[in-house]
Amino acid sequence: MVTEKQKNFLEKLKEAYGGEPLPSFEKICADLGYKSKNSVWQYFNKLMDCGLIREKNNRFFLSKQALGIPYFEAGVRAGFPSPAED
């Protein structure tokens, strides 16, 4: 489960870089306004654990899951409909 801050970080990555390979942590810090490369690394670790960022040939990419699935805050009601009143 990702926190609200992690979701915001992921959204910033999607807006800034889309499906491209992600740049260095230093460039991400400069582009997105973070002060520490370590904080970016902590976000990356959590998002990699959740499968939203993947690594290939020592480069990081946003996964297809991160690019295609919207986040919903509320659950979806399911089941039989309630009887209508006359």
Characteristics:
mainly alpha, 47% helix
Helix- and strand-based class? Answer: mainly alpha
Radius of gyration (CA) equals 17 Å
CATH topology: Arc Repressor Mutant, subunit A
Low-confidence stretches: none
The count of helical stretches stands at: 4
Count the beta strands: 2
Determine the N-to-C terminus distance.
43 Å
CATH homologous superfamily? Winged helix-like DNA-binding domain superfamily/Winged helix DNA-binding domain
Task: Work out the strand percent.
Answer: 5-15%
Short summary:
The chain has helices spanning 4-17, 25-32, 37-49, 64-68, and strands at 53-56, 59-62.
Task: Give a written overview of the molecule.
It is built from 4 helices and 2 strands. The model has no long low-confidence stretch (mean pLDDT 83). Helix content is 47%, strand content 9%. Helix 2 crosses helix 3. The protein starts with a helix and ends in an 18-residue tail after the last helix. It has a single domain, classed as Winged helix-like DNA-binding domain superfamily/Winged helix DNA-binding domain (Arc Repressor Mutant, subunit A). It is elongated. The protein is mainly α.
List the helices and strands and how they pair.
Elements: H1 4-17, H2 25-32, H3 37-49, E1 53-56, E2 59-62, H4 64-68
Antiparallel strand pairs: 1-2
Helix pairs in contact: 2-3
